[in-house]
């Protein structure tokens, strides 16, 4: 088995990179990619961890897009690249500024000054909305993650703040410059009309899209088959990733999604092949 999309404590997951490697081994996942949001900070630990699973360097970039959300996973990246670190640094600074602003809103809500450390001490990267959601649950303001997002944290809700995002072109350029390939993650989250997906994704291939994550926990079996058909028409390789977030998304399991993947090694082979052109 493979899992080419998951998150650690370096973004909004709850497991350390080393724990993820151990879990991969216990689930017989032979190849695993760590793809924390907007960062490569967890990758040194990921590669240093003891374990048998082959490690693949990745990151996941949130793209400036509407109506839904567009995420692009970069795989096989040179995570030590100075240009990549500098470029991701822009997002890190933007996230810090946004967190300051969101924490002011949280402080108003609970009527006392809330610091980053109070929200989370277990994460090793920059805070994200899921950390704030869990804080609101602990405070008894909301019952669960869903309520936290519905009432306060989703786009347009009181605590939500926009943050700087890259365009798809800018992200693709950054990932390719670091030797990686670009994968459109969980495309269903873009919330386009069904008929609009084929022309839209075709347009993205002209702008540097290399593959589409069709197997993922966000997709129903029907969605996966729909996107498999679409990628076939476009001649694009597919990818497969759980988008594991540990206890932050309890219904998502490492190495699991809703549609059977029969040839994981072939999927990985095709993606690797695609990466050769960026070396
Ligand atoms: P951020 O990077 O801080 O904008 O937070 C984005 C994270 O929040 C993503 O990992 C999502 O999985 C999570 N998220 C976004 N919307 C929701 C939602 N409605 N319910 C639960 N988690 C969400
Ligand atoms: Fe996330
Ligand atoms: Fe994502
Ligand atoms: Zn993800």
From TrEMBL:
Question: Which residues lie in coiled coils?
Answer: none
Q: Which residues does the UniProt record annotate as the domain Polymerase/histidinol phosphatase N-terminal? A: 2-65
Q: Name one GO molecular function term.
A: 5'-3' RNA exonuclease activity
InterPro entries, per the entry: PHP_dom, PHP_domain, Pol/His_phosphatase_N, Pol/histidinol_Pase-like
The superkingdom listed in its UniProt entry is Bacteria
User: What CDD domains is this protein classified in?
Assistant: PHP_HisPPase_AMP (cd07438)
Q: Which PANTHER family does the record associate with it?
A: EXONUCLEASE (PTHR42924), POLYMERASE_HISTIDINOL PHOSPHATASE N-TERMINAL DOMAIN-CONTAINING PROTEIN (PTHR42924:SF3)
Q: What name does the UniProt record give this protein?
A: PHP domain-containing protein
Recall the taxonomic lineage recorded for the source organism.
Bacteria, Pseudomonadati, Deferribacterota, Deferribacteres, Deferribacterales
């Amino acid at each position: 088995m493979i899992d080419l999309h998951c998150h650690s404590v370096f973004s909004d997951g709850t497991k350390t990179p080393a724990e993820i490697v151990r879990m991969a081994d216990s689930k017989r996942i032979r190849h695993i990619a760590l793809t924390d949001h907007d960062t490569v900070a967890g990758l040194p630990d990921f590669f240093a961890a003891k374990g048998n699973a082959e490690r693949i360097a990745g990151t996941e970039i949130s793209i400036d897009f509407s109506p839904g959300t567009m995420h692009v996973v970069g795989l096989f990246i040179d995570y030590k690249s100075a240009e990549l670190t500098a470029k991701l640094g822009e997002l890190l600074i933007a996230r810090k500024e946004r967190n300051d602003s969101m924490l002011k809103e949280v402080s108003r809500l609970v009527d006392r000054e809330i610091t980053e450390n109070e929200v989370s001490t277990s994460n090793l990267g920059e805070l994200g909305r899921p950390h704030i959601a869990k804080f609101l649950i602990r405070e008894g303001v909301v019952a669960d993650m869903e309520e936290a997002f519905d009432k306060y944290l989703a786009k347009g809700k009181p605590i939500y703040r926009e943050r700087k995002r890259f365009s798809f072109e800018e992200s693709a350029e950054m990932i390719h410059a670091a030797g990686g390939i670009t994968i459109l993650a969980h495309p269903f989250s873009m919330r386009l009309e069904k008929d609009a997906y084929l022309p839209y994704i075709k347009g993205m291939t002209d702008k540097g899209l290399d593959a589409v994550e069709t197997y993922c926990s966000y997709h129903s079996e029907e969605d996966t088959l729909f996107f498999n058909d679409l990628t076939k028409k476009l001649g694009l390789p597919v990818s497969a990733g759980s988008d594991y977030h540990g206890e932050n998304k309890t219904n998502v399991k490492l190495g699991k999604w809703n549609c059977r993947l029969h040839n994981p090694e072939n999927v990985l082979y095709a993606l690797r092949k695609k990466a050769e052109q960026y070396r």
